[in-house]
Amino acid sequence: MSESQPVIALEGVTKVFDIFSSPRARIASTLGLPVSKKSRSSFVAVQDITFSVNPGERVGLVGRNGAGKSTV
Fold this sequence. Notes:
Blueprint: E1 8-20, H1 23-30, E2 40-53
Antiparallel strand pairs: 1-2
């Protein structure tokens, strides 16, 4: 029996979101303007995720709000 290639594969995926202290800071960042470190913090949604899904396999992502399910 030959080994099949995964239909989904993630390797070492990390996603970090910026959290802004005000709408003004978010807009400034979106426009490429400098934003002070005091006005911004980071939230790591997923860190170093690695998995694969082979043909015929099923996967369910379970976790609380903000766990990174949609990001994955």
